[in-house]
Give the backbone structure.
Amino acid sequence: MIFSVTILGCSSAIPTPVRSLSAQVVNVHEKLYLIDCGEGTQMQLRKFNIKAQRINHIFISHLHGDHYYGLIGLLTSSHLLGRTNPLHIYAEAKLKDIINIQFSASDTHLGYPLNFHDIDPTVHEKIFEDEKVTVYTIPLKHRLLTTGFLFKEKAGERNIRKDFVEKEHIPYSEFSKIKAGGDYISDSGLVFKNRDITIDPPEPRSFAYCSDTAYFEPIIPKIKHVDLLYHEATFMDDKKDKASENFHSTTIEAATIAKKAEVKRLILGHYSTRYDDLQLLLKEARSVFPNTELGEDGKVFEIEL
Ligand SMILES: [Zn+2]
Ligand SMILES: [Zn+2]
């Protein structure tokens, strides 16, 4: 069962010829969720062969333009391409007004329901769940109110031991009850305990998106032990003062958060346009947290079971 993150853009503020603006697609068991939607996101989706029509939920971290200016284009194109499925957007309440004023001015009437869900970026809470995943907000420290997002896979069903059910002739009709944790009682009244019939499901996986933010230790308990952390690293360590003035982070700060939160892997992103050679940023971050990788447009990060 897949759990992956595809980076669509990782430039901060302004796009470059090789780096688009913030957006990424989270794939949980083949359901796609979009986080942020910088200008050009619809083109990035096409470039990396991801069908926008498969995305039903969009999460917007904050209202700096580099994180949502691509939304109006994506919403409009989806309409022109004949979308009929409802689309849900999770963002600060103001976004609804911003989008509606553009639709009103252009006399656009979508052929699909667009549902806005207001989120409060100042609290850590559950904002979404379906049968596969739960999404929580992670309040960040930025010039505007900003939230990160934590995607937590739901625990799967228990795995049935084939050897055991064959040996004891447990009927198939009982499997769904057993997978859900139930014991099995045979016709003769013999009780088979669930712990003997099944083995634990794989550990649920998790991904945290933290952009944009200054160095902010209160996020550590919220992202503790996640499998994958995307943390912005707008600047290198020599621009630490500039990073803090602008409520952004450095490579070393992103890596320090990863280390303190004991995450499994760190992805860097949201790079300042001043950097052509990202290897320098990677080297710096790895000096603190070795299991760091560079976010780059089109890269897919899979979380193995
Ligand atoms: Zn940004
Ligand atoms: Zn920002």
